[in-house]
Structures are given as C-alpha cells and as structure tokens.
Amino acid sequence: MSDLIGALHGIVGAERCLSRAEELFVYECDALTLDRATPAAVVFPHSAGEVQEIVRACRAHDSSFVPRGAGTGLSGGATALEGGVVIECSRMNRIREVDAPNRFAVVEPGVVNSDLSKAVARHGLFYAPDPSSQLACTIGGNVAENSGGPHTLKYGTTTNHVRALEVVLPDGELVRLGSATGVPAGYDLVGAFVGSEGTLGVVTAAWVNLEELPDGVETLLAIFPDVVSACRAVGGIIDAGLVPAALEIVDRRTIEAVEASVYAAGLPTDAGAVLIIELDGLRVSLPRQVERVREIAAGEAASGIEVARDDAERQRFWRARKGAFGAMGRLAPDLYVHDAVVPRTVLPEVLTAICEIADRHRIKLSNVFHAGDGNLHPNISFDRRDADERRRVEAAGAEILELCVKVGGVITGEHGIGTEKRDFMPLLFGPDDLDAMRRLRLAFDPEGVCNPGKVLPTPRFCAEANPHARGYDAVPIE
Amino acid sequence: MSGAGSVAALERELGADALERHATLEVDDLEISATLRPTDGEALSRSVAALGRLGLAGIVRGAGRHLAIGNPPERADVFLATDRLGEVDAFEASEGVCHAGSGARIADLRAVVEAEGWELPIDATDDTSLGGALAAAVLGPRSHGFGAPRDAVLGLEVVLGTGERARCGGRVVKNVTGYDLAKLYVGSLGTLAVIEGAWLRLRPRPETTKLLAATARDLDQGCTLAHRASRCATARAVALWGRAEGGYECVVELAGDAAGVAHEAVGLPLEEAPAERLSRVAQVQTAEGSDDLIVRLAALPTRLAGIARGLAEAGAEIAVHPGLCLAYGRFACVDAEEQERALGASEAIARRGEAGLRIERASAESKRGRDVFAASPAEVRLTRALKARFDPQGSLAPGRAAGPT
Ligand SMILES: Cc1cc2nc3c(=O)[nH]c(=O)nc-3n(C[C@H](O)[C@H](O)[C@H](O)COP(=O)(O)OP(=O)(O)OC[C@H]3O[C@@H](n4cnc5c(N)ncnc54)[C@H](O)[C@@H]3O)c2cc1C
Predict the structure, then answer these.
(1) Which of B45, B11, B13 is nearest to B166 (CA)?
(2) Any alpha helices (H) in A180-310, and if so which ranges?
(3) Are A421 and A457 contacting, i.e. CB atoms less than 8 angstroms apart?
(4) Contact B257 A173 (CB under 8 A)
C-alpha cells in the first residue's frame, strides 16, 4: 500500500477509501464516456474536516485531487486526468439548515438537487435550478458547473441562487466565502467560484436561495410540423414580452425514442417537434398569457396545443422532456450530449445547419433543448467501440461548436468545459483572455493541484490553435 | 516619483493629448490634478501599461458618482477616465441584449433600449456611467426586481492592471464557457481591471408600474409592512425610509402585467404616490457631494427591523430594503469625533444583528485603520492574492480593495 493510500486510510478508514483497480473502474469517467483516466484512489469524506485532511495528505504526497459529486457531469470535470485522488462528496449529504422566513438553506455538497426541493416543499418553497439530471446530481456538482435547467429561462442558473460557500481551498484551509445575505461586500468571491468546475477548491457547504412556490402554473404542449416552426414560436413568445418559466423543444427522433420507452408520454410520433411552454406566476396573470401563447403557436403552424388540466398531465408533458436522455439509451450504447448556445433568433438556421452536419458525418442526431435561452443540446447516439463512428462523432461535434461560435454563440451553456471542450476554448477566447482566467485560477491554486488539466488549454496549444481569436463577433450564416 | 514629476513622465510616455490637467480633486484625501482620457480600448491599454512601467497608480473614474467607496488607496497619481468610451454601439432588440462602452451614461442606455420595449435592469442614477455602475456594483431600490448589476452582465471587455486587454463571457444569455470573471470584475471598484465595455441582458418593459406609499405608524410597523410588500410577486422596489424625528414612509413599486399589479396593489394598505418618491429613498445612500457618513448593513430580512432601530437610535436617517437584505444609515457628522462615534455604533449594531457592515462614505481619516468591507481574514487573503495576479504593479488604486487585517 502506498504512503498516500495509507494516509487516506488514516483519515477515513479503509472502508471509505477505494484503491483497487476493479473498484476504481467506475470512477474512470463521468457521464462523458469519451475521456477516461484511472484515479489513484477514491475517498468518501463525511465532513469538511475530513476533506481538509484529505487535501493536506494529497499535498504532502505530491498528489493532485479532484472533487466529485454524482458523476453526472457531461464534460469530464470529475475525471482524474493526472491520476490524482477523487474526493467523492456524495456522503456529505445533510441539509444543515432550512431558514424558511429568510428563504435560504445551508446544504452539504452531496445533497441531491431534487431532494432539496422535496425537503422544503412543506414550507411552500423550492430550489429553482433544475438540471434534467436533478434526481441524481448533487448541489456540489451544480455549484461547480453553474448548472442550469429547463427553468433557467425565468429563474437563472445556479450562480443566481448561491449566497455563500464553505470551501476547502487547495492549500487545505477551510474558508467561508460570502454571507447568508448573498450581498458581497468586496470582491464577489462566490460569483467567481461558482462555475469553476472543481478547480478552485472543494465545496463543503452552500447557502442557497429558496423560492416561494408560484401562485399558479400553466403547462402547455404545442405540436409542430418541424423544429424550425417550433423555434419561430419561441421567438414570437419572447417578442411578445412574455417571460415563461420554461420553453423546451423536443424533436421527432427524441419523441420516437421517448414513446418507445418507459417514459412514454403519449406524444404523436409523427410530429416534427413539440414545444413545452410553462408559465408561472400570479394566477390572475396567467389566462391572458396562455391565450397569447396559443395565438403565437397557432400562427406558427402548431397542429395542436394542449394545456395541462392537472398536475398529473403536467408531469406527463414533462416526462417527455426529462426522460429524453434516458430514452436515448435505446438508440445506441453511447450518447454524446452536446451543449452550446446561440443567439435565440438564429436557432432555426443553426438547427438546419446542424442537421446537415449530422447527415454529412452519417451520425444519429437528436435534439432536445432549452430553446428560450438558445441553449442547444444536439445529442449524438453512437457506439464508442466503433473507432470510425467515434471519429465521425468527434468531427461532427467540433463542427457544431465552430458553427455556434461563428453565429455569435458560445461552446457551452451549462455542461462546462472540463476536458471535453478545453481545447476548443481558443475558438472563443484569445491568449490574453485565457491568461486572465489563468490568473484567477492561480490566485486560488498557485501550485495547480486542484483538478488539474481542466478548463484551460495549455498556453502553447492556445496560441497555436488560434492566435487571433477575438471571439464572439457575429457572422451571419451563409 | 510623485506629483508633478509623475504627470510629466506620463505625458512624455503617452503624448500631451492623452492627459488633461485640472484643478485638484480629492479622493480619500489623495490629491489628483490630472486625468488620462483614453478614446478607445487600445489607448486605455496603453495608459494602464504606462502607469505600470512608471510605477504610478490611477483611479478609474466614470462619472465620479461612487468614488467614495472602498478603503483609502495607498497612492494615486491620476484619474483614468472612461468618459470617451461612451457609445451604445450594439442593440439587438430581437435578442434583448445590448453592448455599450464603459463611459455610456445610464440615462442614454435606458433611452435607447426603452424605445424598443426593453428595460435596463440596473438601478443607478441617470448620470452614472455604465462602467461606474458595474465597477461599484451599484444597488438602488429597484434592484429588488432587477437583481444586482452582475446579473445584467453577459460579457465584459476589460484592461487588466498589466495593460492587457481581455474579454470574458459573451453576448448570449446563458454561458458557462470558462471562469466567470465578469462576476469578479463587477464590484471590484476598478482595482483588478478597467471595464472597457459590456454586453448587457435586458428585461421586457413591464406593461404597468404603480408606485404606492404610506406613512408608517412607527419603525416596527413600517418594517413589517415593507417585509410583507417585499413578498409580492410584482414588487420591483420596496423600501422603508425616514428618521426618528420625521417619521417613516414605506414606498413600494409594483411592475408587471396589469392584472397582476392591480391584484397585488389591492392587498397592500398603501396609497398611490408620485414616482419621484423612489428617488428620495435612493438619496439616503447617495454619497456624492456630501460629507455625511453613510453605512450599509447587509442582514437577513428577519433581522433588519432590529438593525433599523439601532441605526435610528444612533441618530441616522435610514433606508431599509428587505428584498435586498440591506439597511443604509446616513449620519450627518460634522467632525471626526462624531464620525468615529457613529461608526462605532454601526459596528456594534452589525455585530448584534449578525450583519455585514460596509462603510459607503466616511472621511479618509475614519476609514484608515479599518477595512471598510469588514472582510474575514480568509477573504482579505484571497482579495490580496487576486490583486497580485491581476494588477501585479499596483497600478489600479492599490489598497482600495483589501484593508488592514
Ligand atoms: C441525463 C443528464 C441530464 C443532464 N441535464 C443537465 C441540465 O439540464 N442542465 C445542466 O446544467 N446539466 C445537466 N447535466 C449535467 C450534470 O448533471 C451537471 O453538470 C451536474 O451539475 C453535475 O453534478 P454531479 O453531482 O453529478 O457532479 P460531478 O459530475 O460529479 O462533477 C461535476 C464537476 O463538479 C465538480 N465538483 C463536484 N462536487 C464538487 C464539490 N463538492 N466541490 C467542488 N467541485 C465539485 C467536479 O470536480 C466536476 O468538475 C445532465 C447530465 C445528465 C447525465
């Protein structure tokens, strides 16, 4: 047994430390199965104090470390690229405090996203960020990725809901950033930390906002002949000055997969796309909004518009959306969930161009996405054992990112950079832009021991790849 | 190098046109009598780089509305003005986003976007510059509905303390591409980087707004009423303001669709009032052109009434914003001794109410020896580490962000 493993046993005991090859196998990757690396060990701390000791032990033994939640990340963030120690936070899963009058909770990083909303529902409250993976993913992972979800359109992403953080810094110090009020006094250290993909320290607690459950909710399902008309309806709804809680599009291939799966929601399999529209707010305000949405959808050739009559029907509509990723498991052994954002007004053209890319590379593509934010998820079903198919998947993925940047978009809206898109950063940012990001990282982790190899390309790669990158200048699509 | 020598050296480096000499202005009793006024990002970058090369320091100045915030800088040779970087140069009405230079006036930005049915979700006074509003993370009563300035920022172009130009974020409404540096620059008071321009996210203009107000029976009743109003779904601004002698007024602005606003207005025991009443609330926290001591206490809503009482008993005019978790206290202090007493009282109130105290305006003498942000030792350490990385030469108001530990 190496000295490091011995030291880790000394902190958490042998039962909470995995180090045998067969035990480490499942920790070789997160939900991005394309990038893999075996960690030196996986430890399961129960407290911030144990996290501190683990970090110090890693430092003493010249090992890097990688924080991890549920491993549902889609950009390789929780993969131990340099074979370091994975600090698996899922057993730090206590809700330490619920302060209903002041609308916040203090939670440990391993609390599962949807468990928090369930726990506070009796106070008439909920936690707004709702990634589609919310039944599994953890608040620690959400903070690290600045995760979004279908309701981001109205409620914002995780960064809008984190007031303060307790963090073990890469030097082992336990610190509190921000306060329970969420108002920064000086530098907004919490804002800088959220979305840092586990590279600035290990979150051991988060003070998060709780929202009041809305007075009323209306969920509509509109059926369109194709994705393009569904996108136009989305544009019409936003142009009308409405701010729905969610605007989600599911395309035909996804509908077919969902309807053939346990998530079947009774959607018409001959539809080109469905749009889920959720409106929430004061009950008195909703009827007029529902009417307006109906008019707009009808004006864009919707062949049917249903309004959920009760909660069961509302859940049925959402099942089609939330079960989409699971259902795609039927299409092929592997799924590459892509993530990019484009200006909402170019969605129709971009989707058409993405389908062309998929056809050219002969890949199986389906789309289910947060249309109101312009946040695309082109999902590619494939078999990673087929080397040629894998190459085509990667080539198509790269082309899709280039396209999104070309029209003024960005390469990730919620899944993060991790390892997956690290080398695409120069598409968007020049060397000085990336250097500024590196300064932030070095201020927290001067020795580069915390989740190394993520987010930032090496300076040399970056300069060679695109020395003139100035980023997001809009270029119309030909 | 200091004073006239430093200004002359800058003139030699950058050319006489780049620098404007003027009557001496004071920031935290540092005297400054020259201003660099770059006309574009390149010139801004050259200006900052020159400061670094010559070992000089500048204070970034937008419209000069919020220069009182922060610890007293250790040194400052010139102002670095952003007023010539003032254009609203892109407005994509169909996307609800716009881009403007740092020197753009808030009023001009508002006018441009409102004409197309959007509103700028930053509650700063009309003549504030965009860069100033962002760098100072200005909050006003309407921030309750708007959110903080950081929430409006999609992307920034900045010039770091090293003189390097860098961008972060983008112009789309959802983005996690790399570190969220915009969060760091916003509110950093121009100590890490100078904001050159910003992409902003707009909000649809509400169909209706309604201002309501009522005189409170006493401070406690006023706080209870404000707290209740802050729970309204259409509340855009909610404040209680006043002072012990003159009484307190609760002011509420509702904004949204007509049905929702009407529904919630009926439920509040307040009368319709002219829109200007909200500006009066904002004046409690306005530092410019005054020698008053202004403090800001951030506390949980359930503690704000106690904090407001403490401030009022200590003789302050107050403005309480329950939706923002903030209470401001304004003390008319004529001399240093009074200022010291008022600060001591505010510190004690903050301790009792578990509030975060921030000194918004005080004499340099009173600020010295304390950290105006009352940051924890760990936060001070990280603040210093960031400063050392982004502005290694200390060219941008050194000492302003991190006070003594
Ligand atoms: C089917 C499916 C649907 C998804 N839908 C969405 C969606 O709608 N929106 C969305 O945003 N994402 C979505 N995701 C992606 C993923 O669920 C999120 O990124 C989530 O936040 C990851 O949480 P996790 O607990 O699984 O973290 P992990 O995957 O374990 O880790 C993710 C990152 O967080 C870091 N991290 C984890 N814990 C900590 C900690 N305590 N301190 C510091 N860093 C930490 C890791 O180092 C890593 O970089 C989806 C994923 C799947 C598989």
Answers:
(1) B45
(2) 189-193, 227-239, 252-259, 286-299
(3) no
(4) no
The parent domain of residue A337 ranges over 332-418
Which of A 454-473 lie inside 8 A of B, CB atoms?
Answer: 455-456, 470-472
Q: Does residue A462 lie within any of the structural domains?
A: no
What are the chain A neighbours of B173 within 8 Å (beta carbons)?
A: 341, 344, 373-374
The answer on A197 and A122 residing in a single domain is: yes
The CATH number of residue A165's host domain is: 3.30.465.10
The residue type of A424 is F
Show residues of chain B in contact with A375, CB under 8 Å: 174
Edge-to-edge strands, sheet with A17-18: A17-18, A41-43, A85-88, A65-68
pLDDT digits (tens, 9 = 90+) for A316-368: 999 888 888 888 888 899 999 999 999 999 999 999 999 999 999 999 999 99
- Out of A102, A288, A410, closest to residue B301 by CB: A102
Say whether both A354 and A298 belong to one domain: no
Closest CA to B138 of A184, A430, A62: A184
Domains and CATH numbers, chain B: 4-83 (3.30.43.10), 88-204 (3.30.465.10), 208-367 (3.40.462.10)
Q: For residue A295, tell me if it sits in a domain.
A: yes
Final residue in a domain of this structure, among A384, A403, A418: A418
Place of tokens 């430093």: B6
Q: Is B341 helix (H, G, I), strand (E, B) or coil?
A: helix
Q: The CATH number of the domain where A272 resides is what? A: 3.30.70.2190
Enter the ipTM. Answer: 0.96
Give the model confidence (pLDDT) of B292-349 as tens digits.
999 999 999 999 999 999 999 999 999 999 999 999 999 997 788 999 999 999 999 9
Beta bridge partners of A402: none
Give how many domains chain A has, as a whole number: 3
Which H helix or E strand runs over B351? helix B336-352
Helices (H), B64-165: 106-114, 130-135, 143-146, 149-152
Q: Report yes or no: A225 at the B interface, CB cutoff 8 Å.
A: no
